[in-house]
Inverse folding.
């Protein structure tokens, strides 16, 4: 990221209002079409429906015709967009202007991967979009059309949608904060706008502003209503989340319960391979490093009377946690991918939230923020040291980011 | 509380402060409970989560990480990073109630033989109070 | 090749044998895989013991050695030498501490024996995973780059240059001498008089082994101890660039003076005849000490500690040079009335006190004071202050001389960036270790001398320059190769994702990022082997020799049996 | 470059630093130390300012390296008796006192201490505790090998010729009563004097009421009192068994008498306050000083942190201590007028740093001179701080004048620089 690219402009108070009588999808696609035609953008990375399966695939498209089947906010999250952006940009710069449209959780994943040097934003316009949630992949694929429809008129749903994934029901980061020095996205699409019939294009960085200019869209309508609405929903969902966490924690915490959760795990490591934050070349836990010699296994079986295989199931999940919890954006990709329908995402999201609070860190909302483990304060966390000899300095109150 | 429960505790000691502190405890013939096995590392910051977790996986009833006091690190700031990584592990265990008391970080300097003895013995007692690690029982592996 | 481990347990007189049942230990472990021999011996560290071990290693053709004895801090070195003598790579040896951390801390013999068995077993399992490590030797360039032509840089160059060692002395101005050029006189009681410095400058210019590059600045430095590649631009000769190699770098870029304007209370720039220390130096060197109106001052106030509060430290030298000023004034204007407004008189050198006493004898007033305010009252100066008794008082004078704090040179951040050096909270360069390694930096082969490291007087700067020379002359010995640490970190390329977490945690600037491969690389020549990077790598892509994951994992596993 | 032989007198931090550097470059060092252990004064400190760093952790690795370094000939219990010749070819006679304990055989198990019938004041512990006639003075002393105090050993001083309690207890045959003092002849190219300092004897300043009985402590006594490896294992127990509650710390004791500021007292006194506040949060602490001498970039911060901890710094003169109905009273005068008092149950006095006891004799032996304060005189007037009037002889650390650890180390490195620079010059001659 070069300095000029991601400078924050004043907290946006106005956005460009786009009529959306025929649905937000058409409205947004219209804009994108225009952007391609006017060559304000050279290409767009966006989910496109695959006719055969009715599922969605990410496509980097230049051809406006293909936009027909595109969907800026599909009912499902097939592959985490952050991961996709990493695939696109990790291996070198691009000299074309490319826009990518991501859900908030995907945007935040992208920002974490940016901090981890797994992607760059050069010539990339990141457009984030308010997100009411996504339908569980398996359920969607059972009856694509029905779900497509039910997802169609999202504007009424928001907090009331039962068809979306559990993790989405309690997601209070369904929109993005617009006020940080180095914000996550360049342009934000505010749904649930002033009226039911328009969406807001909110410029967040100078890059976003330029894009609007090129499309000669004037950011002239107020964000008030949108902000109020967003905050209402946020309040509701935060409370829901709090409630859920309490119940869920009692449900899964403690060694016995916790291991019970993963009893069904078949060690397929799908959760890891779809996780945007699991960016390692080769997962430590797939490598031989953690394995023992057969003779060892046998001796240990003898010592303990029995040895269950594969042994490192719990190690895998805890280990993965220790690697990505601080950056977990609660996108739920892992749960969609789990063949044993273990509530992986809730577990990780719970741990993620609590550790992130301890480090006073919110992943993915600020490109400039340093990753907690790449930094330190001389005087902190003395409460974790025993015998502790000082007052806790790092009080675990959450800094309110949204 | 099981009186004749002999816990298995792994202690990662940094070479410059804590390991020297342990030696001093020995030279002063301070009595230490025989439940802790020392694994020497050059700096507490060498210890990564996998070492700790595998220790638990293989049935450690407790894991102790000991290094130089903040500001004393032989490598200037290693122990600051060590403390952060440790904090993360600790918070993970806390958030899931995985008996976080089984994981302990203590600063012990080369002159603190007495402190070393106190830390280790206290830790051993605590672990005995909690009892054997659930990860020891094979069904929990 | 099949392994044959020799295990030798030291009775240490009776220190170990009294408290551990060694025979039982030997029974337990001698059947373990790869164990060729397990024996006990009275005292392995004794001359006889060492001889015995050498013979055993040879006779039994051992491939690995495990010794159960005292703490490695006592005798690891001893036994590594034994290995060398016996032709066994010393890293194929593991020392197991069953005295300090076993026999001596556990009085119950049974328990101690059990723990000893655990430890020895772990040692045996660990040693089978050891790799033989060889000392690497590196050629090194003995030449030195000295940045800054002030007194510190001059002294460093003179102390370093020699028939086998060229020194490049880079000075950004057109002349050597630095700040001292601006001084009227120095502190004779400290032996600092200008003629000596002039001589030193002469010596530099006449020294065939010193190449002086004035009007030049360092553009870029790459490499590491023994092998730095340097480019210097000369901004006179249409900024042509000179490139050369050197083995070490001495940074002696000096200091700046605190600008009194930043503390308006002193009236500098507002009130007439309020001048700063340097202005007075020039004034007195040109001979005439006069006010703006050309008249000599009847009363002068010397204000200490200007900027001390703001900068948060005492600059050590101000008290003395203010006293120097007072004495100059008294010499040139015998009946001038001089008052020193000080907070604390800081006279830390053994000879300073006398210098101060003499000044007192000359009738100079010393006023312990605080909260100084300097105001203009019809072309004289009013100095308001809080006295030692806490009373508000004031004094009327004609001239006020401000002793400004020493602050980091404006070039500090730039040099820090070029050399990847850390700065401390005060903005000066940070020492490798404030106590034990006061003139070295975390970057091997880069040293700081003089006020670039913090406020100090000239003798201390001289000492630091000579110290830098001491460090360099003992590290870069012509014809002698460098032998860096062997237990270094190593990147496992197939695992590295290039997230650069390791770069952020390495204190010694050992790791760099390879743009081509998109992965981190370790410069083993300067790695200290702490393993911080290993602990920080999320992908387990770094291994540290002799403390590899498998080796430690193995110890853990044996601990848990 | 031709190999240099260097004699270094004094194995404190400065001497150790110089030895290490020189041997790194392949030179030979004779390190002469008058005590039976190395490390000098620094190893007496629990923590060092301004980072409250653990001193043992800092120094013991260095000590270990010195002991294991084959190019360093460590001569313990030794003193330089005679020096002849000139730079490049000094001929030196060193008297090495018998220690009666074989460095090679002894493994430092300490079995011999307990049986020894003699009990003496422990010099290292400032007499705060006893030690045997055979013992190492403190836990963790290096080398971890005791020496027999010949004057007090009953066998050696003839009071009880048959006593061999220690010999019987030793299982390594490390004790040899027949060992004799020896004189070694060395040939060296250069000499570095790093003999350090002594502390002013407070008995000479009666106004501070120091008598080794009441709770008035010298700075060094306090360093040991709070050291983890000290006489009380770091427990703060006063001479009368009480724990410190109200503490007065007095700076500059003997400054006027000596005519110079000792440069480090203000800082280590502040260190004491930091430490005491940390151990005894309830304690009331006052520091009595004349001028605060806290030069250097990181020192004032240390002082300001102390202020934050409600430690009171009082600028005053005419400080005296007297015993008033059971407790100690500090009398002082602040500003220029009012007299004041402060009642304390512990007093710590920071005495001036003095030239080492042997400075006079050593200057004579080496053909050097003392400056007006009694320290080794250097050519400082010619802006050559560590060089002396005799070419090839250098003075570093507190032997040259009061200073802190980093400055001492820098001087040691500077002396090495001088020697190396000369020797590399020599080549083209």
């Amino acid at each position: 990221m070069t300095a000029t690219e991601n400078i924050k402009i004043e907290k946006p108070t106005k956005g460009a209002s786009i009529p959306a009588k025929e649905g937000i999808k058409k409205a947004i696609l219209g804009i994108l079409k225009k952007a391609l035609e006017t060559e304000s953008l050279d290409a767009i990375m966006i989910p496109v429906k695959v006719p055969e399966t009715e599922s969605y695939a990410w496509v980097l498209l230049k051809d406006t015709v293909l936009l027909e089947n595109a969907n800026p906010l599909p009912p499902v999250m097939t592959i985490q967009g952050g991961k996709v952006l990493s695939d696109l940009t990790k291996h070198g710069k691009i000299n074309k202007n490319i826009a990518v449209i991501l859900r908030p959780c995907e945007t935040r994943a992208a920002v974490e991967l940016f901090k981890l040097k797994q992607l760059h934003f050069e010539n990339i316009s990141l457009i984030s979009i308010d997100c009411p949630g996504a339908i569980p992949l398996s359920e969607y694929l059972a009856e694509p059309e029905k779900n497509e429809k039910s997802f169609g008129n999202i504007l009424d749903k928001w907090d009331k949608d039962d068809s979306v994934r559990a993790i989405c029901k309690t997601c209070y980061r369904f929109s993005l904060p617009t006020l940080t020095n180095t914000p996550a996205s360049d342009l934000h699409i505010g749904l649930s706008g002033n009226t039911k019939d328009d969406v807001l294009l909110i410029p967040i960085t100078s890059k976003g502003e330029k894009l609007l200019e090129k499309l000669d869209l004037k950011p002239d309508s107020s964000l008030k209503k949108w902000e109020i609405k967003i905050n209402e929903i946020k309040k509701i969902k935060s409370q829901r989340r709090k409630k859920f966490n309490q119940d869920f924690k009692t449900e899964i915490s403690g060694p016995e319960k916790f291991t019970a959760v993963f009893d069904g795990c078949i060690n397929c490591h799908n959760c890891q391979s779809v996780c945007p934050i699991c960016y390692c070349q080769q997962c430590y836990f797939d490598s031989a490093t953690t394995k023992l010699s057969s003779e060892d296994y046998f001796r240990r079986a003898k010592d303990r009377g029995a040895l269950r295989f594969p042994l490192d199931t719990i190690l895998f999940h805890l280990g993965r946690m220790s690697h990505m919890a601080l950056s977990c954006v609660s996108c739920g990709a892992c749960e969609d991918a789990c063949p044993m329908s273990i509530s992986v995402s809730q577990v990780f999201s719970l741990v993620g939230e609590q550790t992130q609070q301890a480090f006073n860190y919110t992943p993915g909302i600020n490109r400039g923020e340093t990753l907690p483990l790449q930094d330190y304060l001389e005087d902190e966390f003395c409460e974790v040291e025993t015998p502790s000899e000082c007052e806790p300095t790092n009080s675990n109150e959450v800094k309110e980011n949204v | 509380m099981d009186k004749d429960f002999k816990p298995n505790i792994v202690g990662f000691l940094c070479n410059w402060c804590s390991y020297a502190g342990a030696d001093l405890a020995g030279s002063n013939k301070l009595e230490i409970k025989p439940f802790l096995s020392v694994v020497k590392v050059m700096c507490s910051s060498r210890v990564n989560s996998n070492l700790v977790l595998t220790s638990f996986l293989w049935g450690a009833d407790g894991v102790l990480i000991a290094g130089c006091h903040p500001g004393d690190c032989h490598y200037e700031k290693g122990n600051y990073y060590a403390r952060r990584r440790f904090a993360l592990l600790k918070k993970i265990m806390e958030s899931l109630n995985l008996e976080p008391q089984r994981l302990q970080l203590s600063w012990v300097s080369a002159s603190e033989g007495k402190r070393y003895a106190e830390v280790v013995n206290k830790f051993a007692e605590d672990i005995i109070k909690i009892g054997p690690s659930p990860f020891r029982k094979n069904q929990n592996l | 090749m099949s392994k044959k481990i020799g295990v030798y347990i030291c009775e240490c007189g009776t220190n170990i044998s009294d408290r551990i049942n060694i025979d039982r230990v030997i029974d337990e472990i001698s059947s373990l895989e790869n164990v060729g021999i397990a024996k006990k011996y009275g005292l392995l560290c004794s001359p006889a013991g060492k001889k015995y071990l050498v013979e055993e290693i040879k006779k039994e053709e051992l491939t690995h050695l495990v010794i159960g004895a005292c703490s490695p801090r006592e005798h690891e070195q001893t036994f590594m030498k034994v290995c060398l003598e016996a032709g066994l790579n010393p890293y194929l040896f593991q020392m197991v501490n069953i005295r300090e951390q076993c026999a001596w801390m556990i009085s119950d013999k049974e328990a101690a024996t059990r723990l000893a068995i655990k430890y020895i077993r772990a040692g045996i399992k660990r040693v089978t995973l050891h790799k033989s490590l060889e000392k690497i030797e590196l050629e090194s360039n003995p030449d030195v780059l000295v940045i800054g032509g002030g007194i510190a840089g001059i002294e460093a160059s003179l102390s370093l240059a020699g028939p086998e060692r060229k020194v490049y002395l880079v000075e950004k101005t057109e002349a050597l001498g630095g700040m001292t050029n601006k001084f009227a006189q120095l502190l004779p009681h400290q032996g600092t008089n200008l003629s000596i410095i002039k001589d030193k400058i002469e010596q530099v210019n006449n020294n065939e082994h010193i190449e002086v590059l004035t009007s030049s600045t360092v553009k870029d430095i790459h490499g590491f101890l023994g092998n730095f590649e340097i480019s210097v631009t000369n901004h006179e000769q249409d900024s042509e660039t000179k490139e050369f190699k050197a083995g070490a770098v001495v940074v002696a870029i000096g200091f700046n003076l605190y600008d009194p304007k930043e503390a308006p209370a002193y009236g500098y720039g507002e009130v007439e005849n309020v001048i700063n220390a340097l202005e007075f130096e020039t004034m007195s060197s040109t001979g005439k000490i006069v006010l703006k109106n050309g008249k000599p001052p009847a009363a002068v106030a010397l204000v200490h500690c200007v900027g001390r509060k703001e900068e948060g430290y005492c600059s050590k030298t101000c008290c003395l040079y203010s006293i120097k000023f007072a004495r100059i004034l008294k010499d040139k204007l015998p009946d001038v009335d001089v008052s020193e407004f000080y907070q604390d008189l800081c006279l830390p050198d053994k000879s300073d006190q006398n210098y101060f006493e003499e000044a007192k004898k000359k009738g100079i007033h010393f006023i312990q004071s605080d909260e100084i305010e300097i105001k203009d009252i019809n072309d004289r100066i009013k100095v308001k202050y809080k006295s030692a008794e806490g009373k508000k008082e004031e004094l009327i004078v004609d001239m006020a001389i401000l002793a400004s704090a020493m602050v980091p040179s404006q070039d500090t951040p730039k040099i820090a960036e070029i050399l990847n050096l850390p700065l401390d909270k005060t903005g000066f360069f940070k020492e490798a270790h404030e106590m034990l390694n006061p003139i070295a930096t975390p970057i091997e082969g880069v040293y700081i001398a003089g006020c670039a490291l913090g406020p100090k007087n000239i003798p201390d700067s001289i000492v630091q320059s000579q110290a830098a020379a001491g460090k360099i002359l003992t590290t870069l010995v012509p014809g002698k190769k460098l032998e860096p640490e062997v237990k270094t970190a190593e990147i496992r390329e197939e695992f590295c994702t290039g997230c650069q977490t390791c770069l952020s945690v390495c204190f010694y600037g050992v790791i760099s990022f390879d743009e081509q491969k998109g992965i981190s690389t370790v410069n083993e020549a300067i790695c200290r082997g702490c393993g911080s990077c290993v602990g920080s790598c999320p992908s387990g892509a770094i291994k540290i020799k002799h403390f590899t994951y498998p080796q430690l994992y193995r110890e853990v596993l044996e601990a848990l049996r | 470059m031709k190999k240099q032989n260097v004699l270094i007198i004094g194995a404190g931090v400065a001497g150790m630093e110089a030895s290490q550097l020189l041997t790194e470059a392949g030179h030979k060092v004779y390190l002469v130390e008058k005590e039976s252990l190395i490390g000098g004064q620094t190893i007496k400190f629990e923590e060092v300012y301004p980072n409250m760093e653990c001193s043992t952790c800092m120094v013991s690795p260095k000590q270990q390296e010195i002991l294991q370094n084959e190019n360093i000939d460590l001569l313990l219990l030794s003193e330089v008796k005679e020096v002849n010749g000139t730079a490049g070819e000094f001929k030196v006679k060193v008297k090495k006192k018998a220690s009666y304990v074989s460095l090679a055989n002894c493994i430092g198990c300490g079995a011999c201490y307990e049986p020894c019938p003699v009990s003496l004041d422990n010099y290292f512990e400032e007499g705060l505790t006893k030690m045997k006639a055979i013992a190492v003075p403190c836990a963790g002393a290096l080398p971890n090998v005791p020496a027999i105090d010949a004057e007090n050993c009953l066998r050696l001083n003839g009071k009880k010729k048959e006593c061999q309690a220690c010999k019987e207890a030793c299982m390594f045959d490390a004790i040899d009563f027949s060992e004799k003092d020896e004189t070694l002849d060395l040939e060296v190219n250069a000499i570095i004097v790093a003999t350090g300092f002594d502390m002013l004897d407070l008995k000479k300043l009666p106004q501070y009421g120091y008598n080794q009985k009441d709770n008035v402590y010298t700075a060094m006594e306090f360093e040991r009192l709070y050291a983890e490896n000290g006489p009380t294992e770091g427990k703060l127990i006063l001479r009368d068994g009480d724990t410190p509650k109200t503490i007065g710390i007095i700076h500059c004791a003997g400054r006027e008498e000596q005519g110079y500021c000792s440069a480090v007292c203000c800082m280590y006194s502040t260190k004491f306050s930091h430490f005491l506040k940390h151990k005894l949060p309830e304690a009331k602490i006052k520091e009595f000083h004349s001028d605060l001498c806290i030069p250097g970039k990181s020192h004032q911060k240390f002082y300001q942190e102390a202020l934050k901890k409600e430690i009171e710094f009082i600028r005053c003169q005419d400080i005296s201590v007297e015993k008033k109905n059971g407790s100690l009273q500090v009398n002082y005068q602040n500003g220029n007028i009012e007299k004041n008092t402060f009642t304390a149950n512990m007093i710590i006095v920071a005495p001036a740093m003095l030239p080492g006891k042997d400075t006079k004799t050593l200057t004579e032996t080496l053909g050097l001179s003392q400056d007006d304060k009694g320290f080794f005189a250097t050519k400082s007037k010619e802006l050559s701080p560590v060089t002396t009037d005799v070419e090839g002889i250098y003075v570093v650390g507190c032997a040259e004048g009061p200073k802190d650890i980093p400055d001492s180390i820098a001087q040691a490195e500077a002396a090495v620089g001088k020697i190396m620079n000369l020797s590399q010059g020599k080549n083209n001659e």
Notes: The beta strands of chain A are 14-19, 43-50, 55-61, 98-102, 124-129, 187-190, 198-203, 221-222. Chain A is about 35% helix and 10% strand. Residues 393-402 of chain A have pLDDT under 50 and may be disordered. The interface with chain C takes residues 90-91, 116-118, 279-282, 284, 287, 289, 292, 296, 303, 323, 370-371, 373-375 of chain A (CB under 8 Å).
